[in-house]
Amino acid sequence: MSTMKMSRRTPPLFSHLPSATEEATKTFTVIQDSIYTAKYLGDSGQDEAMSCDCRSSWIGSINEACGEDSDCINRLTSMECFGTACGCGADCQNQRFQNHQYADVDVILTEMKGYGIRINRDTPANTFIYEYVGEVIDETKFRRRTEQYAKEGIKHFYFMSLGKSEFIDATRKGGLGRFCNHSCNPNCYVDKWVVGDKLRMGIFAKRNLKAGEELVFDYNVDRYGADPQACYCGEPNCIGYIGGKTQTEAGTKLSHQTLEALGLDDDYSWSTVTAKKKKPKKGEIDDDYVQSIQPKALEASTVNGIMSSLVSCKEKWIVIKLLNRIHASEDPLVQGRVLRLHGYSIMNNLLVKWRDEKHIIITILEILAKWPRLTKNKISSSKIEGTVEEICQKNEDAKVQELSRELLESWACLQSAYRIPRRAPGVENAAEFSFDEGRRQREKSPTPSDRPSTPKQPRNSAPAKPFNPPKGPANATPAGQIRQPINQPPPPPPPSIPTGHIMPASTNGSPLPRGWWWHKDPRGVKFFYTSDYSKIQWNHPLDPSIFPQTTGIIKRRGLDDIIQACQQEYAETAEAKMRADIEKKALEEEERHKREEERRKYEEERRERKRKEHEAKKLKKKKEDKFKSIEPELARKLIAKTVS
Fold first, then answer.
1. pLDDT tens for residues 400-449?
2. Of 150, 120, 86, 93, nearest to 16 (Cα)?
3. Cross-referenced PROSITE patterns, in alphabetical order (predicted)?
4. Strand locations in 374-439, DSSP E?
5. Which CATH superfamily is domain 297-413 in?
6. Residue 211 in contact with residue 15, Cβ under 8 Å?
7. β-sheet bridge partners, residue 174
């Protein structure tokens, strides 16, 4: 496979051109969010919002949770935090699509390419630039509109692929993102994100951008047109045309994100391979092509892209290759990373989506069997146990049933660890966010205006939270008094006895103050000591002792008790499991003996039948041979009798 080296020219700047935003937005209807022409279009496949593990992080009046440098599992898998499912709080940094947090851009009029988009500030890589919005349509409407636009003389189409047989049409209704021009060496890329129950397309910076650069991405990956058009990008690797039948009929190139997820080299030959191959029939995949792909070894750093692709991918052969990459990895870091990035929830969705594909089901079950399991929390929250149980009952394949039963048995032995429920700030009893509830809220919200939206920065209207001191028993002790535990067990005797002259242990009938204990030395003489052993003396104490260490001793003792109880419970569980395994093996051995005995009896009966049949045949043949031996004599006698 030959690799084309990518050379890059110095990007031209267009800061001198005046803004043409007002003029450009008169050529179409500006909308803030995509319009779905059918409810099923753009479906993300998520039944409920997946929560991240982030917490609110207020710096001044800005919530920095789920930011670019955070380890937010939703952000890493191209999902936005949605509703009240997450504990990151309002206005977290992973709600850019919902809050329209666009970059500072302007529409400009270029010399050769018509309108384009210019970035007005220096912008770092991976910044969210703009959402590509329009009317979401199916393939039938897509083909009908291409013919209709051609008849009306519309030369510039604004179709973008959202999913299999689903397209965003920004020709007549859209946003400023429609003005991003094509380049064979782009500075932006298009990425698919899950926002609630819908898939949405965003334009992101592929590298660091300088103020004044034109924003461009590769149309041959995501955009669709009717006839091929001349390309004016001016890049050294320019292929000379945009769109045409190569893209719309034979399939598009693989995107950069898909190539990374598949572990392929991002060169020209790989990126155009699907466009050059003959399109298979509907429902078929090219087995030779799938088997020819040799992915790189999976590393923990590349897991994010794989999980993100599995969430939104609808191509069977891509799903198979991504699952095979996960299945082939034995690295515990990779398995832990996959598990953390909504592993159980994503695998559950794949099991539901591809329930009729035996190969995919077996691969997923084998992946699940390799994952480390300590508690049942993630398994229960993902609802994957019910899905596997349903597959075990309804799937007739022996291997699928065996893998399903083994998984269910291993999960049944796990216990759920208690966790304090997470709540969004200011929300009481925050439960899983329902997408039906979200739809009702969106229906009640006012319709957005048709004016072009100005870029929004992260909202900073959240007021500073007042400090409320804790209430309850911890604050109930009057000032100047020492609050001490009740019925505290005595600590172990001190390692040494008091020094100096022995004083008689006169108590005068008064009890020991709090925090003091007594013990006797080897001679039977009583002495006194504090809980933390900071004081050891012969004379009777008069004042109570502050004992911060006592609580630590109690906690350590309590922790030791918990550890001992857990160890004992684990030993009992292991012993019970071992007994169950022994009983199971004994039953299996007994069943095996029964089957062997039945098989032996059957073989004996079969051999006896064969022997009898053989004896009967021999007897019959003997009679036939005897008859044949006397047949000539009988014939002669019959002839003689007839003649006479």
1. 888 888 888 888 888 776 554 444 444 444 444 555 555 555 455 444 44
2. 120
3. AWS, POST_SET, SAM_MT43_SET2_1, SET, WW_DOMAIN_2
4. none
5. Leucine-rich Repeat Variant (1.25.10.10)
6. yes
7. 30
Instruction: Out of 102-111, 179-188, 482-491, 558-567, pick the least confident.
Output: 482-491
Is pLDDT above 70 for 316?
Answer: yes
Tokens standing for 74? 């939703």
What span, in angstroms and rounded, lies between the C-alpha atoms of 94 and 258?
Answer: 22
CA dist., res. 114 & res. 28, Å (int) = 15
The rounded distance, in Å, linking the Cα atoms of 436 and 39 is 12
Q: What is the mean pLDDT of residues 352-370?
A: 88
User: What are the residue boundaries of the structural domains of the chain, listed by start?
Assistant: 20-220, 297-413
Q: Are the C-beta atoms of residues 60 and 461 closer than 8 Å to each other?
A: no
Q: What are phi and psi of 216, to 5 degrees?
A: -140, 150
What is 20-220's CATH number?
A: 2.170.270.10
Beta bridge partners of 195: 198
Check residue 159 and report its DSSP letter: E
Closest CA to 187 of 282, 263, 106, 256: 256
Q: 499, 561 in Cβ contact below 8 A?
A: no
3-class DSSP state for residue 385?
Answer: helix
Output the six-digit token pair for 49.
């919002």
CA count, 13 A, side-chain hemisphere, 302: 18
* Residues 433 and 427: beta-carbon distance below 8 Å: no
**107: β partners:** 117
pLDDT value of position 22:
92
Polymer length of the chain = 644
User: Minimal CA–CA distance to 554: which of 532, 534, 536, 535?
Assistant: 532
More confident residue, 189 or 60: 189
DSSP label at 67?
-
pTM over 0.85: no
- 43-49 average pLDDT score: 76
Report residue 104's pLDDT band, with 50, 70 and 90 as the boundaries. very high
Q: Concatenated DSSP letters for 198-257?
A: EEEEEEEESS-B-TTBBPEE-HHHHEE-SS-EE-----TT--SEE-SHHHHTT-PPPPHH
Cα dihedral across residues 607, 608, 609, 612: positive or negative: positive
Name every residue whose Cβ is closer than 8 Å to that of residue 462 and which is 6 or more positions away in sequence: 58, 61, 62, 63, 90, 91
Can you tell me whether residue 323 is helix, strand or coil? helix
Pairwise CA distance, residues 94 & 82, whole Å: 9
Given this model, what pLDDT does residue 141 score?
92
CB-CB neighbours of 388 under 10 Å: 24
- Answer whether 80's CB lies under 8 Å from 95's CB: yes
How large a percentage of the chain has pLDDT more than 90?
15
pLDDT of 268: 41
What is residue 496's predicted lDDT score, i.e. its pLDDT?
65
How buried is 270 (Cβ within 10 angstroms: 0-12 exposed, 13-18 middle, 19+ buried)? middle
